[in-house]
Write a structure and sequence with these properties.
Hypothetical Protein Tm1070, Chain: A, ASRT, two-stranded antiparallel sheet, mainly beta, TM1070-like_sf
Length: 123
């Protein structure tokens, strides 16, 4: 039996989907989740903005003992996607402990940039 690994609440304060990309790669961001448990994880994602109400209750399942890379551009609330060109922050709540990392591919210039950081866990 594995002991609990990870946390149930994570924050990513810096989100941004660029309006344009150059070349063949599309700029994107991903919430990278590792579920090392033997049961599925149910995520409840909230997107916060500077000048508007949050997008709440975006549900995603990460199967047991799997990883899932969730492109933020694929997240919708009632059919409305996260707007491009607008700064936002992310809260990830899970019903079981998980590990969360955040990655961004910026292809707005010919010289692509890739960034990846651990999200901030709350105990």
């Amino acid at each position: 039996m594995h002991r609990s690994r990870g946390e149930k609440l994570w924050f990513i304060p810096d989100g941004y989907i660029p309006e344009t990309s150059s070349g063949q790669l599309t700029s994107h961001e991903s919430i990278c989740v590792l579920n090392a448990a033997s049961e599925d994880a149910l995520l409840n994602i909230t997107i916060f903005f500077e000048d508007r109400d949050p997008m709440e209750n975006i549900m995603v399942v990460v199967p047991a003992r799997r990883t899932k890379h969730i492109r933020t551009s694929s997240l919708h609330q009632e059919g409305t996607p996260i707007p491009v060109g607008v700064p936002y922050a992310i809260e990830v709540q899970s019903d079981i402990p998980i590990i969360v990392q955040y990655s961004r591919l910026d292809s707005t210039q010919a010289e692509n940039a890739l960034m990846s950081v651990m999200a901030y866990p709350i105990k």
